[in-house]
Amino acid sequence: MTITVVVLLVAPLLAGWLSLVVRRSALLHAINLASMGTIVTAEIAITRTVLRDGSFTTLDQLVYLDALSTFILFIIGVVGSACSFYMRSYMDEQVARGAIAPSRLNLFFFLFHMFLLAMVVATVANSVGVQWVAIEATTLATTFLIAFWRRRESLEAGWKYLILCSVGISLALFGVVLLYYSSLHVLSDASQGLNVTQLLPVADRLNPHVLKLAFIFILVGYGTKVGLVPMHTWLPDAYMEAPAPVVAMLAGVLEVVAAYAILRVRMIVDHAVPFAFAGGLLALLGFASFVTAAFFLLIQHNYKRLFAYSSIEHMGIAMIGFGVGGPLGTFGGLFHLLNHALAKSMAFFAAGNIHRRFHTVEIGDVQGVAMAQPWTATALMISGLALSALPPFAAFASEVQILTALASQGVPGIEFTGTEGMVTVTLSDQFGRVALASVFLVSAVLSFGGLLYRMTGMVWGTPPEGIVRGEVWTLGHLPIILLAGALVGFSLFLPQPIQQLLERAAAILVIQ
Amino acid sequence: MLESVTLIVAQTTVLLAVSPFLVGLIRKVKARLQLRRGASVLQPYADLVKLFQKQPVISTTTSWIFTATPYIVFASTLTAGLLVPTFTSQTPMNFAGNIIALVYLLALGTFFLILAGLDAGSAFGGMGGSREAIVASLTEPAMILSIFAIALTAGSTNLSTVVHKTAVLEGIMTDPSPHLMALAALFIVALAETGRVPVDNPATHLELTMIHEAMVLEYSGRYLALLEWAAGLKLAVFLSLIANVFAPWGIATTMTPAAMAIGLLVYLAKIAALAVAIGVIECMFAKLRLFRVTDLLGVAFILALLGLLFFYILRS
Amino acid sequence: MPVLSSIGSQLVNLCSALLLLTCFAIVAQRRLSACVDLFALQSAFLVLTATLVAYLTGNQHIYIAAALTGVIKVIIIPRVLKKIIDRLNVKRELVMYVNVPAGLLICGGLVMLAFFIAQPIIPLGSLLTRDSLAIALAIVLIGLFTMIARQKAVTQLVGFLVMENGLFLGATAATHGMPLIVELGVFFDVLIAALIAGIYTNRLQDAFDSVNTDRLTILKE
Description:
The complex is a heterotrimer.
Chain A: H1 2-21, H2 25-53, E1 56-58, E2 63-65, H3 67-97, H4 104-124, H5 128-146, H6 152-184, H7 196-202, H8 208-226, H9 234-241, H10 244-272, H11 275-299, H12 303-324, H13 326-358, H14 369-372, H15 374-387, H16 394-409, E3 411-418, E4 421-427, H17 430-459, H18 477-492, H19 496-509
Antiparallel strand pairs in A: 1-2, 3-4
Helix pairs in contact in A: 1-2, 1-4, 2-3, 3-4, 3-10, 3-13, 3-18, 3-19, 4-5, 4-10, 5-6, 5-10, 6-8, 6-9, 8-10, 8-11, 9-12, 10-12, 10-13, 11-12, 11-17, 12-13, 12-16, 13-15, 13-16, 13-18, 13-19, 15-17, 15-18, 16-17, 16-18
Chain B: H1 2-33, H2 43-53, H3 64-82, H4 99-119, H5 123-154, H6 159-167, H7 176-193, H8 212-215, H9 221-246, H10 257-284, H11 290-315
Helix pairs in contact in B: 1-9, 1-10, 2-9, 3-4, 3-9, 4-5, 5-6, 5-7, 5-11, 7-9, 7-11, 9-10
Chain C: H1 2-28, H2 32-57, H3 60-87, H4 100-118, H5 132-149, H6 153-175, H7 180-208
Helix pairs in contact in C: 1-2, 1-5, 1-6, 2-3, 2-6, 3-7, 4-5, 5-6, 6-7
């Protein structure tokens, strides 16, 4: 298995290096697709091994792969490949239009590969510290991708993203330091003290107070990357300004990886601290994100920002699922991460196509996409319906699972241990469950209305004067079709390996 | 009783003798750093002698406050000096008061200086007075807090006890952090209170910048001599305070002549070193704008507060 | 040995306190270049602390981390920042969101908060590093505050670097250094982050004719 893992890590590294050397854009795309293909192949091999033999470590304990990290790798592979296909047509058109100099393609691809590499490292790393380094690296790799157009607005978005995420991630590092601090008293070999494989067996002996503090810092830190309210302010700006394929990666994969980092630490924390602590905090942030985003979806008049707030909303839903916990809630949360990644990357592909045709991001100025770009309009409708969590889409299934878990278990009580004694807020009694489920439903209906109302306005009607009608088939449409197929397909029939992966990943997260 | 009187006389003599020397030393250090030869270190003594011989001129618009102020300022500063240990850890007026008395004796002098500045009715006097009032009101809390931080570590507000305990390293908390912060705070306070460079410039008579000089502008003759001497004394008091509270080692802890002699030598060396440090600082930094003085004194206050805070944290 | 470790513990505490003091100086300082100098001084104190800890605990790899801090944070990053400041037409922070005395008071409050948070976990640590964790947290919080209170991109960057210094202090003094691979990664990230932020300030200057981040208000709801 070692070789597979090495291939998985070397492919983007090599591709990044080659991207700096190669001059022809066709070759750049070829390298990108080859690297993506290698990654996906390696992932398939890893998935087979993990499903057959369970988790394993390799490369001198540096790499740890279990069902959960394999599941995240799967999302990276799917969304990454879709992006690579989409980039083929998108970037070529930008170069042809003169929006970017051909030489800057090198930088774009280099940063893209480094971004991918950092995410893969963050996913497979055994050490929580290495994971931190990789997640900070994603910030550094993406900030220039976000500011790629070098307009004043893009610079502003890139700067805000860099500063906010770096600060957030610094707080997370403090959490990692605390985690290490707690492990020093338990583990004899300090140099392995941040490895998940070392921490998990002794997790119940770690000092609970330090772990609580560590989890709060890590939640706030990585929560900034996930875009949870109230650390979300960079997210709409960045999603509005970045090139479409980059946004698809940010929304589809980066958020998932950051959420995964939180879940990893939570696995350890849950052993020593009552389950209610981490779960309560996750659910709290989840609800804050869900409700806030639902409100902003209603008043949004810019379709890229609309999708950005929809991202915040769906990450909030997933966090509620993890917070409620239990087999159902956790499964729902993981499944929701997958569905959101597929639907959101598709939505941003469609948004990128629309922006290239209509040259505006104002919803009011876009009409009649169905006539101007029938393929894109279909993609927009499908992703819109999926993001509104309507049946028959898979997001409906995951959202219902989370809602069921919420209504049956409620949110575990949050306990504040102060110097003056204990304050307990319990939301798992009858009243609390009904109240929370109602809030969930109302927010879901609000976001459904906000999203779908805007989308239908964009799709139907007649396009404004001067907009070319008709759509030429490009390679960029391939990922849209595949993603649409997956979105519809997963709700009807979840392929056996994915089903198994999800169930095992959920089982890892649920503490008996 | 006799011992106590002897001590009072001895310490008064030392303080009075040493204070013009400190002023002269700072001027000399500044001059040498600016590549000038500068006046002799003993010049302030000559200045004082000359001023005492001159006929004072007093404005006809002034009241009794104007003539009384130099005596009050001189007397209060000297009394404050007797509350601070210099060459022995035993202070001559130990029975009369502690740190708080020290702070308010100095404040009394400042108060009368401000009054005298206003009394002469000149524009400069009032301006200097109002500036001095700002500075004094900001330094006072910082000064009290920083000394309290030290007092807490020794468990007493009596300076003699504080210094004695620190000198023999007995019954005190020996953690350096609170000491360090309080020292930094008290040093800034000392610069501000004695009218030194980042806050005031003793060498200027430019109306835009002067604080202390503006208040004493109307004085001449023996009154001016007393005020100048009092200013030197204040400097000596602060330097003794810093030297002995934060690094009392070498001070005479017993009343034997040998210990006293060593104590005196060490004391002179310490305050001379501090005076040299002040001279260097005066050369390195420019005077702050008056509005920025609050920033500097804010730093001093926070440092003192942190010193206090650290004490409690370290003990728990 | 108890005497040595008690003196060592005091020295480590003293160095941490010096780090905290430079933090306050940065908060009170308006001149950009002086802020950078103070950051370099703080990093130098950090090197001293790390070397002390390395010597007292006998952990060899902390020496490596200390040397890296010396090279990156005392020499390279301050130089880069100075270059940037030279290029800019602004030398000092004229308007702050929070004035200096209020800022200092807030930072004093942050120190108290840090100690309050860290109090329950301090007894866990070894004797050598009683307060360093709390001081590290205080430095992180003050760095965060600096980023919020200042408008210039350069001083915000200094605030970020101060945060990193606090984190490194926490990692070194409280846990005797993280695993080497993690520390190397962190150094690499910090260096790249500082360089990237430097590039940004240049681009912001070109695009907005200012490095005042309050000009960055095009994007909003």
